[in-house]
Amino acid sequence: MHYTLADRVSLSTEMLSTIERGVALPSLENSKRPSWVFGIAELALFGAGFVIGDGGDRVLILSKIQINILRSNNEQLARVDTSLAGSID
Question: Where are the alpha helices (DSSP H) in 1-89?
């Protein structure tokens, strides 16, 4: 049986096409699905760069943070920056 990528990631071909063209941003869950199929980090699929690490929870957490940052508007980014500065210093 022949499966399309849309079939394998349980998305409609229309939704997958809008994500591929940059018309829509995938949800965190939907961004993970193609990465599971290809066996690579979801960030590699969306041109956001790579999170380098030795695997495990740290890489997963950093990947989620990076995805959320990419989706944030300027006001949200300013709040994140303030929050991080306060928790790291």
Answer: 5-9, 13-20, 28-38, 42-45, 57-71, 74-88
Q: What is the pLDDT of residues 36-49, one digit of tens each?
A: 787 776 666 665 55
Diameter of the chain by CA atoms? 56
What one-character DSSP code corresponds to residue 22? T
Q: Are 51 and 43 in contact (CB under 8 A)?
A: yes
Residues written for the chain: 89
pTM above 0.85, yes or no: no
What residues does each domain of the chain span?
Answer: 5-88
How far apart (Å, rounded) are the C-alpha atoms in residues 30 and 50?
18
